[in-house]
Design a protein that fits this description.
This protein folds into four domains: about 5-85, DnaA, N-terminal domain (GMP Synthetase, Chain A, domain 3), CATH 3.30.300.180; about 135-290, Rossmann fold (3-Layer(aba) Sandwich); about 300-365; about 385-470, Orthogonal Bundle (Chromosomal Replication Initiator Protein Dnaa, Chain: A). It has 21 helices and eight strands. The protein has helices at about 1-15, 20-25, 45-55, 60-70, 105-110, 145-160, 175-190, 200-215, 220-225, 245-260, 280-285, 300-310, 320-325, 330-350, 355-365, 380-395, 400, 410-425, 430-435, 440-455, 460-470, and strands spanning about 30-35, 40-45, 75-80, 165-170, 195-200, 230-235, 260-265, 290. The strands form two sheets. The protein has a five-stranded parallel β-sheet with strand order 5-6-7-4-8, with helices on both faces. The two termini are about 35 Å apart. The structure holds adenosine-5'-diphosphate and magnesium ion. The site of magnesium ion has 4 residues, from α7.
Length: about 475
Amino acid sequence: MKDYWQLVLTNLKSNLSKSNYDAWFSQVQFSKTSNNGRKLVLEVPSVFNKQYLEKKFNADLKKAVLKYYPQVIHIDYQISEKGDSQKEIQDGIFPIQENSGNLKETLKKAETRNIDLNRNSFNRTTNIHNLNPKYTFENFVENNSNQLATNVAKAIIARPGTHYNPVFLYSSVGLGKTHLLQAIGHKIMENSPSLKIKYATSEMFFNHFIASIQNKNGNSFQEYYRSVDVLLIDDIQFISGKEATQEAFFHAFNELHQNNKQIVITSDKHPKSLAALEDRLISRFEWGIVIDISKPEFEDRLSVLKFKAKKLNLNLTESQLVKIASGVNSNFRDLEGVLNRIEARIKLIPDRAFEDFELNKILSGSSLGSTVSISVNYTPKSTGQILTLVGQVSNLSTEEILGTSRQADIAGGRQLAMYCCKEFLGLSLPAVGKVFKRDHTTIMHAVKKVNKAVEAGDTNLANKIAFIKQSLA
Ligand code: ADP
Ligand code: MG
């Protein structure tokens, strides 16, 4: 984890003036990450340095950090001078646990932790909607895994508050919920600039709520949330177990819903699977439409990867792209993490071509120390290799091999690739099916057909198979 901090600094160095960099970043050090990598703690030499970073360089720092620590949500500062009372000040969001639902206790906890609750109130934010300019529809790749969610998003953009309300969108991490949620906000704002749009994570909502109570301005909190036209609440799972916050949210929800104000909620789980969420909230969430983004298949990952590689201006070969898309099969955030590391390498040593062995290192997480968990359910290297090799011997592109064309030479190449994946990688029929997005019976059929053709004396095909087998060894 620590290694990436150097990359962040290098990135900042190239984007800031030398005097600014030297004055404000040269002494900032990596301290640690916590909360499963969601929180990054930096050590700064003084309170002043911290405040200056927050005020003047917040956006630059966040941008650079996100590139190399894609899972980071909060940045914390720690003052390196010992005994400084401001030691554990957080940027924006503070992790107060409200397990008991006892508000008094929570507030006490917040107090004893010496947290300035005002810091997180909405007054701090200059734009009320809080939208990240990066998360637009233009930057969002539609594909099979998110098709339904995207269609629903488009429908509510066309007629906010009337079509589907609320929309409850769930998926596992890194599949584009936040991106899509914010893209909805951007588009509605573009279409109807007069509408008041509020994006908040449920943690922000919670913190804001606690702050309003401590500052005794609970009414203005309620009024504030009731006055929005489009409420986008991200990661609702974090208010599980927080009864007082759920209560506040419930009232805001009802009021907005009654007035046909659009509500979109995201979560890492289906509403029914959210433990410690009040039944009345769960049933409200199911009033509208509940949709999910499914785990992306190879082609989905490849399309997002190509889009992002192009945006970053990275000249990767087709086989490298295939290798990445097959190797990083967990989520889009991990895919971005890998791509950012590749970008760092290419930009750090621009004169040297980016070689396959370097990619292998990045994919195996060994080049810079891994923060990315790459779950591989088939050998990434070999699948990519087979696609490349079949492409070579059959004069086909990977897209053609993985595509749907029934043209004889393309379908033949595809069957050869299926055969090789099955025979040389020791994969099961369903696993090969996954690579090609086909049913296992289709793979079985392909293997049989290739075997039959070879038995019937198709030497051309036999030679191709021998060549691929040799190349893989
Ligand atoms: P989640 O909220 O589901 O955890 P995010 O919205 O934060 O996921 O997405 C993780 C990263 O992947 C973001 O940087 C986002 O821009 C990117 N991403 C996710 N889905 C897509 C997509 N369909 N097209 C382009 N980028 C995507
Ligand atoms: Mg998210």
